[in-house]
Design a protein that fits this description.
Elements (H helix, E strand, L loop, with lengths): L3 E10 L1 H5 L1 H9 L7 E7 L7 E8 L17 H12 L1 E11 L11 E9 L5 H12 L6 E9 L4 E8 L2 H9 L3 H13 E8 L2 E2 L1
Antiparallel strand pairs: 1-3, 1-4, 2-3, 2-9, 4-6, 5-7, 5-8, 6-7
């Protein structure tokens, strides 16, 4: 597995974030030392009222140097979630993902796809893992990087894909190979999938 655990926090943005996300993020994180991590933000293209914070830290350790309004450091997932809840909006979902590969590489692509995979009852985990390995291992010029990982919620896994462009994504979706169509169909028999796309920027 990857040596990086990645937190994915979905939140409904506050009015302040909605009106001025860049300055709101700058004000929020100015008192936090993120030298040991990479943190990204982006807004869902499917649902602009939903935004995401993506943060990674080596082997679950992200050192926060916290001053006012935070007086003590806690474990990083709780702390990051509290920061988002206090300053950016209402937290809707929070997953800690242990990716098999580099979970940050897709975040640096022009367009990022995040698929939240919910395992159907009695679906064999090994079959799902095999399908995700094949899917993220596809050699496609349209894709910059792809990987998947299990989360702190046993029934939910996450796949991330970096796309060269929205047009490249649409070309693959609209003109899939027979093998790709079969792979997706077989996977959907095993899981339910919620997909979002965003243009992420690093904080």
């Amino acid at each position: 597995m990857s040596s990086h655990l990645v937190d994915i926090i979905a939140f409904s943005p506050s009015t302040k974030y909605h009106e001025d996300p860049i300055n709101t993020l700058a004000e929020t994180f100015q008192n936090i030392d993120l030298d040991a991590s990479h943190t990204f933000h982006g807004r869902s293209q499917e649902n602009p009222s939903e935004a995401y914070i993506i943060s990674s830290k080596c082997l679950r350790f992200l050192v926060f140097s916290i001053t006012d309004p935070w007086t003590s450091a806690k474990s990083s997932p709780d702390t990051l979630k509290e920061v988002v809840a206090s300053h950016l909006g209402t937290v809707d979902e929070h997953f800690s993902v242990n990716f098999k590969g580099d979970g940050l590489a897709p975040m640096r692509a022009p367009l990022t796809e995040i698929a939240f995979v919910t395992i159907k009852p009695e679906s064999p985990a090994e079959d799902i893992a095999r399908h995700l390995d094949i899917l993220t291992g596809q050699d496609m010029s349209a894709v910059t990087a792809a990987t998947w990982g299990r989360t702190n919620v046993a029934s939910t896994w996450v796949m991330v894909v970096g796309w060269q462009s929205k047009q490249a994504l649409e070309e693959v979706v609209n003109n899939p190979t027979p093998e790709f169509k079969t792979l997706i169909s077989n996977l959907k028999n095993l899981v339910d999938v919620k997909v979002m796309h965003a243009e992420f920027a690093e904080i």
